[in-house]
Amino acid sequence: QVQLAESGGGLVQAGGSLTLSCAASGLTFRRYAMAWFRQAPGKEREFVAAITVTENTYYADSVKGRFTISRDNAKNTVYLQMNSLKPEDTAAYYCAATQRASGRRWFEYDYWGQGTQVTVSS
Description:
- The protein has 122 residues and is mostly beta strands.
- 0% of the residues lie in helices and 50% in strands.
- The chain contains no helices and eleven strands.
- The strands form two sheets. Strands 2, 4, 5, 6, 9, 10 and 11 form a seven-stranded mixed sheet that branches.
- A hairpin with a 5-residue loop joins strand 5 and strand 6 (57-59).
- The mean pLDDT is 96.
């Protein structure tokens, strides 16, 4: 069955960096657009970044210039490199996959990982 497994979350000081990984199985990875969403307690799930099957990338304004999404189809893995982290980046980060060409809305995604917590301290 389809599984998305995130890793790489943790505690980091403001200004620091983390790289998240999402390993996919049970799907033809290269045919799916991939994305990262995040959700803080009491807040709506929000779009962070997406990468299409042709490797076009899209970012939320709040992370543009700081985060980089990439994919390695040979490893069935999508990454999110996060630099210059801010306390407001603190959230559970979720990996998602869609057969659509692209998507910024959570309901456009077919599969989800369990999430990995990122906490940025001041």
